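Let's study today's protein:

:::
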Amino acid sequence: MNKNSVRLFVYGSLMPGGTYYDHIRPFIKGMRPASISGVLVNLEEYPALIHGAGEVQGMLLELRPGAIPVADEIEQHTGNASTAEYNRQTVSVRTETGESLYTFTYYYARPEEVQTRPRAIVGDRNGLPLFRWNPLRSERHSSCCSMEQRQPT
């Protein structure tokens, strides 16, 4: 990664096939499967990532500058804890080749509200739950965001 790119780990609606993938696609320079530690909660229309014991599978995107404000708007990351739906955080991600990299991802801003929701478990690895979201199942409407599809700068 250099000053002309930024990494983002995605696990739901921003993944290929997801509801908002087309908004981020023009910024993508590369992508590869990856995983992070955490728990994926099923909110029916989209997933919520929270801290916990497990492995969440997704995609590591390498993006052109300008992508993060687009992703922030989609994920309703306002920078204000009382109004944000998701908070952007820096995390360590593992690629399929075992490489460990730092990247941004979005955690659900109010994890206490989703503790009793179903989990998106697809199996287990080394005794821990394995989580993965099928973005094609998401029916969340893109009308939630006031954005137009933007081109990278």
Notes: The longest strand covers residues 47-63. Helices lie at 21-24, 67-74. Strands lie at 6-10, 28-42, 47-63, 86-95, 100-108, 121-125, 128-131.
